[in-house]
Specification:
Blueprint (H helix, E strand, L loop, with lengths): L3 H5 L3 H4 L4 H22 L6 H43 L6
Helix pairs in contact: 3-4
């Protein structure tokens, strides 16, 4: 699972929150797995298949949440960096 740019990097920190394809795949997997669990196993939550699907759905959802948190953090850092650059550029130069 993942795109070509994710396969090039090896560290999780470099991949997390940057790959739109990975986030879309996790969203789709989360929706499908939660939907399947609610449809098939909601009445019998103690069956082995139910527990397995529950763990898979929770894992997909937590990894998606981690992606979204890091993506939000990265976008906030970029915005603050751009604001600081704009503030520095707007200052009029003082003549000696």
């Amino acid at each position: 699972m993942g795109c070509r740019s994710c396969k090039k990097t090896s560290l999780i920190k470099q991949k997390l929150g940057r790959c739109r394809q990975c986030m879309l795949q996790l969203t789709l997997l989360s929706i499908i797995s939660w939907g399947a669990w609610f449809y098939f196993y909601l009445p019998t939550p103690k069956v082995v298949g139910s527990i397995t699907l529950l763990f898979a759905a929770a894992t997909f959802s937590l990894l998606l949440a981690a992606h979204l948190i890091v993506a939000l953090s990265n976008s906030l850092k970029v915005r603050s960096t751009l604001k600081n650059r704009l503030k520095r550029e707007r200052k009029p130069r003082q003549m000696p």
